[in-house]
Amino acid sequence: MNQMCFPGLRLPPVIVVSLIDSHERRAHITAQLTKAGVPFRFFDAQRINQYPLAYDQATRLKMYSNHLTLGEVGCYDSHYRIWEGLARSNDDIWCVLEDDVQLTPDFPTRLAAALDVSIHWGIMRLKSGGDSGRWKVGELPDGGVLHDHRKQPGGTQGYLIRRDAALALLDYGKRMIHPVDDMLNRNWEHGIRMISMWPDILVDVGDDLGTTITGRQKAKRSLAQKLRREFHMGRDCLNSHMDVWRRRLLAGAR
């Protein structure tokens, strides 16, 4: 799958994650991409009815004393298999969208502009997730801004990913422990340069379309389990902040 060229724009392959029976969501995203003139293909996500061998139940329970939901497992599996597809391809960059987003009118031109930034990146989210704790690391050719973040934006609604980042995630994420967006945001462990673009070129409208992922029920934890969970979360917070300081120092040195 090669980069798409149409009316003067060079676009990456666009992959839309969608359950095959999510007819309303598919119609929603198809109408937008067709109107925008953006070629795309669906990745047919599957409903997971049992935990796969890749799910590291022992580590998950040791750290958090609760399971991932099967919906979270399905979401993880979909993105992981898309990364496998990118790794097998001859492409450098793919655009991954979920089917519950609203695209801005300038989506095609700004997506094309994102391919021409001069700074190094592995994953570029197509929405910034707010302005708290972010700092500028570059500019887009169209005047937009690229940011790094103290706390990375949540979700996997829309992002660009390079092939080398996909290869790194395939190795790092082969044991399923965290929801896929949490796993992506553990960049102090996998080492991938993650940035976002602003202004956003998509909006999450999943609440309007209804979720396809069942929420996790509040776990009943013993005191020991609560303390262990707080330890792991505190350690993650410390490691995250240390990595932020490192990235900000590097940004200041450039």
UniProtKB/TrEMBL annotation:
Name this protein carries in UniProt: Putative glycosyltransferase
Domain Glycosyl transferase family: 13-116
Signal peptide from the UniProt entry: none
Record's keyword terms, sorted: Lipopolysaccharide biosynthesis, Transferase
Keyword Nucleotide-binding among UniProt keywords: no
Stored InterPro entries: Glyco_trans_25, Nucleotide-diphossugar_trans
Organism superkingdom: Bacteria
GO molecular function: transferase activity
SUPFAM superfamilies according to UniProt: Nucleotide-diphospho-sugar transferases
Pathway in which this enzyme or protein is active: Glycan metabolism; lacto-N-neotetraose biosynthesis; Bacterial outer membrane biogenesis; lipooligosaccharide biosynthesis
Organism in which the protein naturally occurs: Pandoraea aquatica
GO biological process: lipopolysaccharide biosynthetic process
